[in-house]
Specification:
This protein is an all-alpha fold. Helix content is 60%, strand content 1%. The chain has one domain.
Length: 306
C-alpha cells in the first residue's frame, strides 16, 4: 500500500505541475536575471504573463538519462563503437525529400561548400535528421523548457518526477550534484535565449524548441548561436529559422569543430559527433550524406558513357 501511495502522490504532483498556466514561484529566477543585468521591468513583465508555464518534464527526462548512464558500467576498457543507424532516414521517401531540398537550395548550398569546405550533402543530412528539413522545430517553447530547468536546481523537488528504477545504489548525491549543474546550464542558455530574442526583436515565448531548449531549423542551443551562428541573409541578426542562416550556421559549426577541406574520412564521424554526441546520430548523418552523394556519382559515370 505504501508503494501505491507514493505512485499516487507522484501522479498528483505530475498533474499539478503540468497544468497550463500554473503560477510557479519564479522570484528566485527573476532575481537572478535582474542581478545579472537584465532590465527589472522587462523581466517582471515577462514572468507575470498568463502564458508562462512550469514544465517538470525536461529536467526529469535529463536526470533519468544521466542516472541511467551513470549506472552502466563498461564491460571492457575498449571503447564501444556502434555502427547502428536510424534506418527511417535511409528510406527512399526521406532520401528523395532530402534530394529535392538540396536541388531547391543548390545555389546557397554550393556557396556554403566553397566557403566552409563542408559538403552540401552533409549539411542537408544534418537538417534532415535534426528537423526533417525544417518541418519540425520542436513542440515546446524554448523559454518554458530553459526557465523550468533553471528553476529546478533542488533535487528533492525533482525527485518525484524521476523514475524510481533510476534511483539506486546510493546515487542520490550524484543526482543532487548533476541536478544543480543542469540547472545552472539551463540558466546560462536562458540568458542567451533572451539575448537572441532581443536581437531578433522576437517574443521569447514565441520561439519553439526541443525538450532541452534547442532552437531553429538546425537545432542550436542558444549559446551556440553566438559562437557559430551566421547572418547569411544580411538582415543584421542571426535567425536560425531563416534557411540561409541555418544552413550556413550548420556548416560553420562543423568547420569550426574540425571539418577542413582535406579532412580524412575517418575523422568525419568525430566532427559530426560534436554536433550530437550520439554515435548512431553521426552514423546516420554520414549514411544519408553518402546516399545523396551516390546519386551525383552515378550521374557523373553515366554522362561519361553516353
Amino acid at each position: 500500500m505504501r508503494n501505491v501511495g507514493i505512485i499516487f502522490s507522484s501522479m498528483i504532483l505530475l498533474f499539478f505541475f503540468s497544468v497550463p498556466g500554473l503560477a510557479a514561484d519564479w522570484s528566485p529566477l527573476m532575481n537572478r536575471l535582474i542581478n545579472d543585468g537584465f532590465e527589472e521591468k522587462s523581466v517582471r513583465a515577462l514572468f507575470s504573463r498568463d502564458d508562462i508555464q512550469f514544465d517538470p518534464e525536461p529536467m526529469a527526462t535529463k536526470m533519468n538519462e544521466l542516472l541511467r548512464r551513470s549506472s552502466q558500467q563498461p564491460i571492457s576498457p575498449k571503447p564501444f563503437v556502434s555502427r547502428d543507424v536510424h534506418k527511417r532516414y535511409l528510406r527512399s521517401g526521406m532520401i528523395n525529400q532530402a534530394r529535392a531540398y538540396l536541388e531547391r537550395n543548390r545555389s546557397t548550398l554550393e556557396q556554403i561548400s566553397r566557403t566552409y569546405c563542408v559538403p552540401k550533402e552533409v549539411v542537408v543530412s544534418i537538417l534532415l535528421v535534426e528537423t526533417h528539413l525544417g518541418a519540425n522545430t520542436g513542440k515546446r517553447k524554448a523559454f518554458h523548457v530553459l526557465s523550468s530547468m533553471a528553476l529546478s536546481a533542488d533535487w528533492d523537488q525533482v525527485r518525484s518526477f524521476v523514475s524510481s528504477k533510476a534511483i539506486q545504489n546510493g546515487n542520490e548525491e550524484y543526482a543532487r550534484t548533476r541536478c544543480r549543474e543542469k540547472s545552472d546550464w539551463a540558466y546560462n542558455e536562458l540568458k542567451f535565449l533572451l539575448e537572441y530574442s532581443r536581437i531578433n526583436n522576437t517574443d521569447p515565448l514565441s520561439i519553439p524548441g526541443s525538450i532541452y531548449g534547442a532552437i531553429g531549423l538546425c537545432q542550436f542551443m542558444p549559446s551556440n548561436v553566438f559562437l557559430y551562428g551566421v547572418d547569411a541573409d544580411g538582415k543584421r541578426g542571426i535567425d536560425l529559422f531563416s534557411t540561409p542562416d541555418a544552413l550556413n550556421s550548420i556548416a560553420n559549426y562543423l568547420h569550426q569543430n574540425g571539418w577542413g577541406c582535406r579532412i580524412e574520412k575517418k575523422n568525419r564521424r568525430q566532427v559530426v559527433m560534436t554536433y550530437n554526441r550520439s554515435q548512431v546520430y553521426a552514423n546516420t548523418v554520414l549514411a544519408v550524406a553518402d546516399r545523396l552523394q551516390a546519386k551525383k556519382r552515378v550521374k557523373v559515370r553515366s554522362s561519361r558513357t553516353t
